[in-house]
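Customer escalation, tier 2.

The customer says the design service returned an amino acid string that "doesn't look like it belongs to this structure." They asked us to rerun it and document both sides in this ticket. The original structure tokens are below, unchanged.
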């Protein structure tokens, strides 16, 4: 844990930052225009250099010969050390609590930095935890590594990896799309590859696969604690890990060697009985849970699955369930370890780890009394009889609006959904495993037998190079292509908005069905009028063959060759693992350089993709008075609304440029407009929110945002916090917050405050200014008074609550959490071989 500032340090903080910055960055220097690559330490020019994918798999013998490369791997000795520490820590916890423990408690409490004195109050205390691994995808890794560079470390303190899956846009098929990405994103890929080589981070290049599938295949292990700069990191809960999505600043904490903190979550137990059959799939479990708990019902909670039904699910099937737990706001979700986990680890060349895990099964399963008397240990319990679960399809516009497939035609008619399905898509980190594509292929094979073809365009994203090579060998791709499917890159693609569509215009209402996880307006194609429905891969294929929501493809007749009718049969149970083993391991992987000194990291001054960060300046008391309310958002304000993806993904490493998308998707509660607001100084109306924020910043005015319920739900993107901070935001005042976004705001030095009386949200009017009083006396138990000066001159005081502990307050007082890391470091960035440019003012 980063130590808070002492009182005397606060007075000289701003001066210290300027002195530190001047010693680190020479404004007059012109760095050499090069970047050393990870391969053999060869120095290559970066300007206009193409980026090439590693054509062959890295052999394990090459990794073993490089100690820095071995540091990235999950070895037997590494896991054994963690299990030993967990056993010692849990002995302390058992003595303190004197009761049986749930699975989630064993893993979370087993990673406590200070088990003797840590407060363990659920829902209130913040836990300081020792992280075992950090993972980052290429869109969030840019900012995370730029921040890590400023932390002044020679090497990451925990095994870490970067996965290039977010920057490949789906358009013309796998080969064309990958080549386009290599050209378009060359500068970013070179930067990430060189930074990984230098700092001891594993680099998985474009085309190697989706982050969570690759991590599950290579690094995940039962009982570990992993954090990732992607909200669907909980995927690894399918292999009994506590895996939590976080912002990039959180990953920096762990990579810099500090403990990481999280609010001690409450526990929701989901008891599974029976066994899935017919059309029901693992996806339907989480679609059902989402319906019951809603998009915010899991906030600051861990969803722990238990009961005999768990053993009937494969590891990748469990991963589907835990992955999409992010859509209900859960801190994470986790399943107990069982024989299916052993089989999966054996199939992915981790037999030693599997044998070790079998010797420590007590660490990866709840104590017996928990399953016998769950009401004594969980804060909430759901029960699901898998044998009675029917296939569901959730949407549109929210992942918790569930329809039974049998009811969808009627629901679509009643709600005036566009009946024609414009596109169907299978893939994403949620559903792109061998088992998923095998079940999907079985439905396709039924259609082929009757001469049937997809009546809607069908796109497939394999989860990794490993999966793609294996299903190509085993015939699943051929079957899917046989009904007209287009095979896309091993990447996220349309799931995260990386999809170029020519078939519909923006604003045109249309229906798509996919096996993804998130379906907020504009999420997949930047078109807010696209109605996205989420289902299992096999149900998506069935609807592709039907082409229309008015048809129930699980029961109704479909049309085959020459107009002949046929009916689909439920897919039989399949082997979730390839009988002939996986092929294509570690394709696209580049281990860290053996010699870090052979590699330097350069950020060109003319780059419009990357930008060196300057520390955010600490607040001064005068800035908290008479602050404009930049915008008051209404309804669902996800991180996609605050910092849209799609075309903006290319600027994830350039804070100034990406800040021009800030809140451009948010609904203005006063005007009803999207992404616009009023400038209280110029009185211009319907001005783009970022333009008004920049005007306020130029005037030296801090400002605030007012938000609605569950503000910041959705992805982990920290740009939704960094852009407001960069443009001058001091506080976000909302009815409630999503967990990751609230944490991201704190890390960046923004106060996340909530209305004690939810109705006070309605009192904030257009043109109001606010003053946050006595922030210099902020402490964990004191509320904050907000003085609101209305446009008519009247004044009222509104009390606000917060969840800031002393460490969070230290972040705020320092200007950001990263500033504290910098002050505790001592060594300059240039001394560590980081070549930087004059930073932009923050």
């Amino acid at each position: 844990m980063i130590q808070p500032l002492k009182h005397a340090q606060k007075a000289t903080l701003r001066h210290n930052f300027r002195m530190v910055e001047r010693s680190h960055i020479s404004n007059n220097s012109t760095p050499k225009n090069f970047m050393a690559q990870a391969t053999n330490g060869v120095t290559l020019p970066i300007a206009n250099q193409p980026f090439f994918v590693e054509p062959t798999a890295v052999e394990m013998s090459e990794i073993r010969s490089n100690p820095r490369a071995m540091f990235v791997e999950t070895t037997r000795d590494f896991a054994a050390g963690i299990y030993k520490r967990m056993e010692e820590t849990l002995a302390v916890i058992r003595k303190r609590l004197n009761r049986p423990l749930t699975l989630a408690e064993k893993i979370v409490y087993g990673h406590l930095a200070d088990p003797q004195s840590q407060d363990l109050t659920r829902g209130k205390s913040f836990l300081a935890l020792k992280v075992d691994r950090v993972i980052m995808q290429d869109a969030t890794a840019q900012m995370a590594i730029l921040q890590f560079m400023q932390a002044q470390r020679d090497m990451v303190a925990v095994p870490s990896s970067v996965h290039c899956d977010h920057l490949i846009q789906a358009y013309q098929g796998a080969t064309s799309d990958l080549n386009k990405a290599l050209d378009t994103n060359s500068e970013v890929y070179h930067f990430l590859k060189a930074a990984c080589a230098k700092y001891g981070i594993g680099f998985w290049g474009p085309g190697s696969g989706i982050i969570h599938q690759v991590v599950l295949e290579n690094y995940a292990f039962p009982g570990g604690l992993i954090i990732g700069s992607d909200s669907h990191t909980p995927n690894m809960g399918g292999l009994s890990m506590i895996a939590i999505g976080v912002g990039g600043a959180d990953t920096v904490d762990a990579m810099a060697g500090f403990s990481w903190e999280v609010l001690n979550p409450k526990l929701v137990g989901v008891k599974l009985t029976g066994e899935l059959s017919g059309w029901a799939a693992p996806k339907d479990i989480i679609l059902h849970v989402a319906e019951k708990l809603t998009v915010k019902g899991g906030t600051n909670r861990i969803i722990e699955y238990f009961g005999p039904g768990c053993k009937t699910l494969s590891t990748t099937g469990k991963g589907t369930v835990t992955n999409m737990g992010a859509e209900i706001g859960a801190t994470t979700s986790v399943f107990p370890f069982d024989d299916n986990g052993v089989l999966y680890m054996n199939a992915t060349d981790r037999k030693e780890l599997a044998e070790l895990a079998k010797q420590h099964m007590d660490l990866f399963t709840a104590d017996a009394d928990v399953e016998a008397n769950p009401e004594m240990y969980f804060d909430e319990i759901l029960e699901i009889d898998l044998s009675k679960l029917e296939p569901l399809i959730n949407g549109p516009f929210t992942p918790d609006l569930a329809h039974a497939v049998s009811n969808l035609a009627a629901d679509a008619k009643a709600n005036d959904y566009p009946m024609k399905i414009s596109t169907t898509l299978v893939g994403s980190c949620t559903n792109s495993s061998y088992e998923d594509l095998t079940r999907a292929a079985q439905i396709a094979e039924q259609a082929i037998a009757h001469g049937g073809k997809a009546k809607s365009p069908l796109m497939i994203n394999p989860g990794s190079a490993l999966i793609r090579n294996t299903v190509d060998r085993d015939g699943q791709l051929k079957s899917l292509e046989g009904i007209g499917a287009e095979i896309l890159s091993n990447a996220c693609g349309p799931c995260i908005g990386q999809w170029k569509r020519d078939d519909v215009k923006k604003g045109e209402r249309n229906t798509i069905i996919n096996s993804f996880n998130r379906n907020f307006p504009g999420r997949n194609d930047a078109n807010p009028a696209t109605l996205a429905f989420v289902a299992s891969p096999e149900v998506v294929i069935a609807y592709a063959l039907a082409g229309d929501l008015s048809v129930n493809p699980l029961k109704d007749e479909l049309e085959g060759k020459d107009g002949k009718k046929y009916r689909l049969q439920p897919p039989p149970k399949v082997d979730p693992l390839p009988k002939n083993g996986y092929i294509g391991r570690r394709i696209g992987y580049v281990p860290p350089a053996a010699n870090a000194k052979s590699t330097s990291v350069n950020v060109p001054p003319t780059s419009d993709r990357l930008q060196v960060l300057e520390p955010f300046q600490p607040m001064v008391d005068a800035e908290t008075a008479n602050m404009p309310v930049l915008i008051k958002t209404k309804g669902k304000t996800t991180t996609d609304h605050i910092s849209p993806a799609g075309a903006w993904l290319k600027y994830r490493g350039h804070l100034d440029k990406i800040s021009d998308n800030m809140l451009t998707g948010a609904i203005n509660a006063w005007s009803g407009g999207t992404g616009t607001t009023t400038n209280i100084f110029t009185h211009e109306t319907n001005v783009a929110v970022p333009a008004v924020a920049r005007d306020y910043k130029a005037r030296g005015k801090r400002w605030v945002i007012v938000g609605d319920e569950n503000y910041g739900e959705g992805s982990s993107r920290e740009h939704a916090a960094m852009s407001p901070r960069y443009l001058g935001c001091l506080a976000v005042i909302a009815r409630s917050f999503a967990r990751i976004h609230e944490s991201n705001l704190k890390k960046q030095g923004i106060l996340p405050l909530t209305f004690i009386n939810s109705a006070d949200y309605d009192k904030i009017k257009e043109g109001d200014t606010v003053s946050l009083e006595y922030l210099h006396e902020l402490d964990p138990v004191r509320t904050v008074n907000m003085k609101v000066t209305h446009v008519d001159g009247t004044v009222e005081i509104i009390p606000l609550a917060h969840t800031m502990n002393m460490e969070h307050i230290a972040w705020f007082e320092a200007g950001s959490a990263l500033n504290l890391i910098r002050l505790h470091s001592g060594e300059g960035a240039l001394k560590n071989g980081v070549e930087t440019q004059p930073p932009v003012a923050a």
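Tier 2 assessment: The sequence is consistent with the input. The two ends are 26 Å apart (CA to CA). The longest strand covers residues 266-273. Sent an explanation to the customer and offered a walkthrough call.
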